[in-house]
Amino acid sequence: MLKKMMLIAAMAASLTGCLSQSHDRTDNVNRQPNPVSSKGTIDTVKPIRLNAVSTAIRLFVNGYQATSAPKIISGVTYVPVRSAGELLHKIVSWDAATKTVFINDQNQNQAKPASNALKLIVNGKQANVAPKILSGVTYVPVRAAGELLKKYVTWDATIRAVYINNQMHNKVIYFPAVRYPQTAAHMKSAMKRGESPICTIDRGGADENREQSLSGIPTKEGYDRDEFPMAMCAEGGTGADVAYVKSSDNRGAGSWVGNKMESFPDGTRVLIVIDTNSGAVSAPKPTPQPSNVYYKNCTAVKAAGKAPLYKGQPGYSTSLDRDHDGVACE
């Protein structure tokens, strides 16, 4: 029976808020090396830079997809600050008089800054990068958002998605809510009650976790007692959220998850995203980029104002990328 997973279905918005959505495929968040370190987290020294292509970028925060999508501005990826802040259960507020966005862990009186320049202050600390306001929505660079909120930020090049989570993850699976709606609904409600969307695989502890989580909960004919987090996850066991889910739905969901995670070794940290669409979304196809751009050396790249160059961008070559980390002419 299904125990641990995590959600993504949506809510977020501008400086007035909302959210939504997702997909069904196993992805490795380290698939594209350029802005991502070997641990699958954003390199906090380099901002995410991407070519402007026709396919929109999606933002997922702790299992939820924000309806306010990230934007690419001058090659840097920006995320909507209210979406990220509120989905991380932060208090987000705006002071029009001083043009200040505040993000705090709790409601509190704000000291009024002297400057009237647009700024972001997180728990009393001013960011060293200014926000941008586009169509009434305030955005900050994703790298800065991760640092200021002390969260892990990862980038999936295949589906062009940015993830912000409380914990680091190595893999992503997209749970098909359309196929298993009752199980998905339980996952979603458990997530809203504070369960993490990340499952650390621990098959050896599954039996003990199952016994602990189901202790004192009677069986019900035609239904499974669904645990969330799953028993096969280190986060499962005592305190797990348990709900009655129709056996046909829950067992199908358990089989689906088991198949998706079968090849993952114990210790793998899996972000489980709930796909509220068909469960079979294909990876988007970016607009083809010109391939006839050539730079003799990094001096030429810098003279053209294109440094740094990321793998996949026009003019990038391994001869310019001496340390082979996907970023040339840093």
Automatic annotation (TrEMBL):
Record keyword Transcription present: no
InterPro entries referenced in this protein's UniProt entry, alphabetically: Cu_amine_oxidase-like_N, Excalibur_Ca-bd_domain, Mao_N_sf
Domain Excalibur calcium-binding: 294-330
Keyword Manganese: no
PROSITE patterns xref list: PROKAR_LIPOPROTEIN (PS51257)
Annotated signal sequence range: 1-22
Alphabetical list of SMART domains matching this protein: Excalibur
Region (Disordered) residue spans: 21-41
Compositionally biased region (Polar residues): 29-41
Keywords: Signal
Full protein name: Excalibur calcium-binding domain-containing protein
